[in-house]
Every structure is written in C-alpha cells, then in structure tokens.
Amino acid sequence: MSLDVRYLFWILRIRFTLFLSVAAVVVAAGLAAAVALPQVYKAQAALLVESSQIPSDLAASTVRTDFMMHLQRIQQRMLTRENMLGIAETLSLYDDAPEMEPDDIVRDMRDRLTFQLSGGRGNALYVAISAEADTGSKAAAIANELVTRTIEADAEFREKIATGTLSFFEKEVWRLGEELDQIDRRILAFQNDNVGALPETLDFRMNRQNLLRERLAQARREIAQLGDQRRRLVDVFEATGRTDTIAQRPPTREEEELSTLRNELTSLSAVFSDNNPKISVLKRRIALLERAIAGQSPADPPDETPGAGVLEAQLVEIDSQIETLKETAATLEDQVAEMQVEIDRTPANGITLGSMERERDNVQTQYDRAVARMSDAATGERIELLSKGERLSVVENAVVPTHPASPNRKLIAAAAALAGLVFGLAAVTVAELLSPYIRRPAELTKSLGVTPLAAIPYVATPFEPLWRALRRVAVLALIVGVAGGGALLLDRLGYPAVEIGQSLLTRLQQLTG
C-alpha cells in the first residue's frame, strides 16, 4: 500500500492538539531542566614529570619506581578522607552548609575532582587535575590546592625513600662492622690459644724439629764416643796398668774396627729399637772384637797400679760429661715430642682458622659493598633533598574560569525541542493505532471486505465545540508556559528575552504591512 501523505497530514491536523500538548510538555520539561540545573565551573591544572637533572651515569637517585604507579599512589592519597576534609576546611568550601556530615563532604569532594594521566612509554608523562565548583574561584582554588598537595606528597615520598635507604645502609654498615670486630676477636683469641700450632709457622717448627733431632743424634753419638773412651781407658789400664798407653801407641786394626762399629751402633740406635736385627748383629760383633782385644793384652797385670788415681779422675770427668749429655738428650727428646704434638695439631687448627678467615672474608665483602652502597645512598639522598632527581613540576596552574563548564543550556534546549517533536509524533501514532474508528473507505474494505458506495462526512455533537475550545485553551497555556521557560532560559544565557520579543513583533508588523 502506497503512503498517503495527505492522509497523514490530515491525521496530524485532527490530532494536532495531542501533538502540541505532548510536545509542549516535553519541551517545557527540558527547558525547566536547562534553567533549573545549577552552573558548574571547572578549573584544570597540569603537571609534568621531569627527568633527573643529573646524568644517571654520574650520580643516580636511590628512588627508582615506576612513575605511573607512583602517580596512582599519590592519587589515592589525595582522595583519602583526611585529605578531602583538610582541603574543604582550608578553603572553607562548606561554611554555608554546616549541617553537612563529614561523609557527605568527602563524597561531594571526590565527585568534584578528576585525575587524568597521559603519556608514558617514551612520551612525556602529564597529569591533569580538574576541580568543579559552583563558582570559578572555588574551582581554581580547589585545583591549585590539590596541585600543591600533590607536589608536596611527591617530594615527601621521594625524600622518605631516599632517607630510609640511607638509614638502612648505615645500620647495615654498623652491623657488619660489629660482626667483623667479633670475628677478628675470635681469630685473635684462637691464634693466642694455639700460638705454637698455627699453619703459618709450620715450616719453621718442622725445620726446628729437624734441627733438634740432629742435635739429639749428635748428643747420642757423643755419649757413645765418651762411653767407648771410658771403656778403652779401663781396658788399657787393666791390660797395662797405665792410662796413657792408648795415646803412646797407635790403635790396632781391631781397635779401629771396634770404634767404627760402636759409632755405627750409636747412629742406628737413634733410629731403630734395641730389638732390631741390625742392632743385635752390631752388638754381637762388638762383643767379639772386645774379647779379641782383651785376649791380646797381658794376662797378668803388674801388682802396682801407679796410674789408678789418674784413671779415676779421667773416668769421673767422662762420667760427668756423659751425664750432662744425657740430660741434654732428654731435654731435646722432650722438645722434639712437644714439637711433634704441635705439628700434629696444626692441620686441625688450619681447618678451623681457614673457616674463620673465610667467614671474615665473606663479611668483609658484604661490608665493602654496604659501604659503597651507603655512599651511593648518601648521594641519592642529596639529589632528592636538592630536588635534582625525577620529580613533578607545575606546567600550568589553574585559572579562574569565566564561563561555566556545565550545563550546556543551548544543547539541552535543542534536545528538548527535538524530543518534544519526537514524543508528539509518537503520541499521535500511538493514538491512531489504538483508535477503533474507521476513517477511510480503504480501511472499511480492508477490515470488512466490502466496497462502500459513498462516504458520509463526520457530524459533530453539540459538546464537541466546547471540548475543542477547552483543549485549545490548555494548549495555549502550555505554549505560554513554554514561551516563559524559553524567555527565562534566554535570560540565563545572557540574551535579553524582552528585546528579542520586541524585535520579532516589529518584523511581523513589517511583513504584514
């Protein structure tokens, strides 16, 4: 079925009252909202994240954090209850509303504020702080106060981190220094307790032990030689009755061999025990030679022994020397034994001392690193105290706005007019769809399946003119209300409604002539 435009305009004409009423109500509501909504002023300040003013390869700050996360933390701190109430009290924002509860103030303050982060990943990082208020001065004051507190919070955070880092490394250096002192005292006490069994003196003690053994062997050889000399003196005296025979005549081959064997026995006795086969063989050979030498001497010594006194003196002297050498040998044996005990203790002491020294080296390494890091931390703290590191700076302070940011009354009025048109047409459409009347012959044919012969025009009842008049009055009232709302809106927007009306009337008069 083709669209009958004339029929649609006819429906709109007969339903014009409904259309105008709905449109007027919607437009009036929109205009009332545009007029009633309070003006909101918005002020905005901009912050910039500046990089460090000192090259990081020369001196680096100890505050190393992701600035995006850092700004988010600052944002959360700025929106805390304490901070919101502090800003409201500082700027006296709610002095005209003493009945407001603190929770309501905090909620309203948070609704006024906006943080917007932009940039990052190779681009400059900006922070936009916006504040809304019923006046421009309040909005600017809130934004600037928030900027001040944000910069103070950033500086406080960075100084706190830098100071805390320096304090930590100072305590760490002190702790490691105390630990080093304790280890040094333990090492010194151990060295004092084991002064004779330390690894560094092992070579000296082994050399000294060898020297003492050589001296001991020499003492034993001298004892053996003195014993041989004593026995020879006695043998000579018993054989000849004289004490100088040995000196007056050269020794025989047997006597030379006997002296050699005795010296060899003395040397081997310092190394082997008395039960050793070599020692036993030497002793048997020495005994045979002694008997042979004794058989060569005169069997019957003279009755008179004029050299007995001299022999006795020589024997006493030899015995004294032997006793002295034996005491020396005993002392040397004790020293060798003591030295051997110390040498045997040296490996265990070396292991213990090495463990203590490794522990000290580890602590010393930690101490050196802590000292170096403490120096870096002191430099980083100095950088933060002088504000030479990465920081927030104000790019633009908030200025007092001259025009409100919302509501957009023109947009609301235009939207209200469009909505009135749409709702008016919708009301007409719904009324026609719900209407039980048949208005055209085509509808009769469609509904009943018959073709009418003629169409009788509509005959109005006596009350319908009165009803139409009342509806026109209502519509006129709505139009007047809408016009009044429009005039008030124009006044709020700064346009003089009276002058505009007069100019429109003048134009109409000119056109109608």
TrEMBL record:
GO CC aspect terms: plasma membrane
Ranges for domain Polysaccharide chain length determinant N-terminal: 3-67
Topology of the protein relative to the lipid bilayer: Multi-pass membrane protein
Domain of life: Bacteria
Keywords: Cell membrane, Coiled coil, Membrane, Transmembrane, Transmembrane helix
Localization in the cell: Cell membrane
Coiled coil ranges: 209-236, 308-373
rRNA processing in keyword set: no
Gene3D superfamilies, per database record: 1.10.287.1490
Ranges annotated as spanning the membrane: 411-434, 473-490
PANTHER family: CAPSULAR EXOPOLYSACCHARIDE FAMILY, TYROSINE-PROTEIN KINASE
Protein name (record): Lipopolysaccharide biosynthesis
The species this protein was found in: Roseivivax marinus
